[in-house]
Amino acid sequence: MSGVAGASKARSPWLSAAVWRGLFRDRPMIPLLALLAMLVVASELVRPGIVGPDWIGVILRAAVPLAILAGCQTLTMLTGGIDLSVGAVASMSGFVVASLAAGTGTPTAIVIALVAAALAGLVTGIGVGVFRVHPLIMTLGMGLVVLGLANFWQLQTLMSSTGVPPELRWLGSGAFAQVLPYSLLVIVPLAAVILVGLRRTGYGRLLYAIGDNPIAARLAGARSWQILVVLYVISALLAAVAGFLLSGYTNVASVSLADSALLPSVAAAVIGGTSILGGRGGYGGTMVGALILTVITSLLSSLGYPDAVTQILFGAIIVAVAAAYARVTSQS
Amino acid sequence: MTLTTTDLLLEATGISKTYGAVVALKSASLAVRPGEVHALMGANGAGKSTLVQILTGAVHPDRGTIAVRGRQRIVQSPAEARRGGIVSVYQEPALIPDLDIRSNLRLTETPIEPFRHWLRELGLANLDLSALARRTPLASLRIIDLARALAIEPDVLMLDEMTAALPANLTERVLDVIGRQRGGGGCVIFISHRLIEIAAVCDRATVLREGETVGVVDVTPGSEERIVELMLGQIVDEMPAVPEGADRDRSRAATPRLAARELSAGTKLQDVSFDLYPGEVLGVVALEGQGQDELFDILAGSRHPSGGELLVDGTPVSFHHPADAIRAGLVYIAADRAEALLMQRSIRENIGLPFITRIRRWGLINTGEEHRLVDSAIATLRIDTRAQGEVRQLSGGNQQKVTIARWVAGGVKTMLCFDPTRGIDIRTKDQIYLLLRDLAAAGAAILLYTSELKEVQLVCDRAIVIFGGRVVAEIGGADADEPALLRAAYNLKSGAVIPELAAAEAHSEAGAAPSSEVAAGGSPDAAPAEPAEPSAETTAPEHNR
Description:
The structure holds 2 protein chains of 2 kinds. Chain A is mostly helical.
């Protein structure tokens, strides 16, 4: 309890561990932004002249879908859950739009994909909220089911599929003045809704509440199944939006499009300070986490390291950050 | 007391143990002679269980010495205590459910033949040793536990509430076997809430109060009174009774706010009925584990009753979730703050929690309205808000205030308080008492379970006493002093219990609940014309009507 107060009286306050601990706990954005800045500087040092408007555009375009998928993880992790079906749901949504757009028009195709995603989220939510299946198991299973259904759909529509519609390509890979990607038009309002929603709405508070102490939430009258069903539907819808942007960004419509983004989405939320145990974290940190991961990936690939090295570093960073958070947020 | 140390089988002296600021044991001592059945007595929180844990090596004392047969011992673990001849049997059987009985015996290196002998003595001769422990009835498991302990012929056999919830016929057998341990080479330390059992089998009793040994009593006819007196100690009466006459004689509203009709929950709670009227604080008094937990769980909507009916304002209700109880105006305050609070969230969010749980309140929070509600609740309860961040940084007393403030903020109709002052400082306790009185004066109905009997007279208009899952007494607030409550809580009738009656009761035939039955049905006149104590009223349920 007195960790922070005690530290201010220490002899060298700026070097004391308790100050850092307080900083991490109360203002996690500051060290995160510092880490991001360090990585940008490192990129510039490794390849002088690389950091410029074009580079920023590239980073942002890659980071936006990741940040949205990481939003799914943030919301579910706040309740002590996780959503491992986001990869499959995102891929499925992107693929459904690509396969239907030519026939029905892009807007209708998008609506159909969103409905399909929402149905998957509803099933997940009922499994987690009503039947009390652990979210890890439920979303893992649901991800496989969605992947299987998407494969089935792929076999049915192989002939008619015409590729990613131009609207999505524009949204996913276009940019204002070649710098600010159009996908910001999606993430900025989305992020605003999530940030305000978590802080200022009853629903957002309840997400924290059931993650912090499900018994207390129950005794206060919260019916967690309602909250969880809505949560997994929201998560699936977010995943679908990420899938649209991702297919536009890569100009690929594939049933395994977003698979490789699943673990980075968890990593971004964890790096951003959301506790996998629930009740702690927020979306601001997650977005910075997504940027950090994107910059690291770009940095490593510009060094010419093979994927294996990137993966090892990814894993190491996640473990290190999670351990650091566990240390600073535990009391005493 | 003229015995020298070497005459004693077990001697513990000056045992103390503190947990942080809480003193569990101040200076406890226990001296047991060979061949003796010795009772260890004390009200809730007196330090009985801590002393037992220390003797069995589960907890290390801060200070004090333990000697067995005159040689000092430092017991580091239960296994070591066992090797040293100290064996204990608890209320919960200590058998591994997925092993058969024989394997369980092998694990503890129990010799089989003596074990079979004791099984026969305890009336379980044809037990199948190859049956899985999980398939064996609970009562049999307790007997197996006892036979296993007896089989290794321990120096000190500790029985902690072993007979609680044991069927009457088995209790009789157990008491019989324990009684026959008298005069042998070992000794038995017997812990029970039932004074009748103490009277039936024990030679002497050591009484603990507030972490200290306050007396050793030879158990003879009539000594129950002395034991109860010792458990109570000097009645401190420095605090004025808060409720004044006007409140107590409040004319009752036509319909009770909350009425329980023959509520049952399995075997833990049986036929509990009471009425709770607006404007009154009704106390619930019970020793640990008498069914009060189940009662409050049912009222708070966390548990479904197995029988009976619950009426709110005269209308039958059925709760499937705490939200149903809250909607009916029943709010629950738990003793365990960790159960009620969002430890990582702010005071404000914790107090505001009940207001956002309904789906139509899931939208944007009206921050102005929320601030007003929360601030007024903080002011009412005088919560120290210096620790703005997380509730886990608050003191225990402040945390408890937050759990109460959460419900006060929205206006209270019926409040169910389960030991709300457990483990908090005296000033906060007083504030909570006053708050409960104020709420009642404003028309709220309050049900208060408390393990601190002093509180009853301070706060409650009347109190019901639960023993063995049944309401055994109703006592008016004015008469609810500690002796009266404790006698009722131990289901001890007025005056004293004559040992013949006690023995007869303890050996009563199978099928009858050993003691609660008699008290529930028996009238005060059943007791002999012993000194006319004021507590004669304790068993008159209609006294206050």
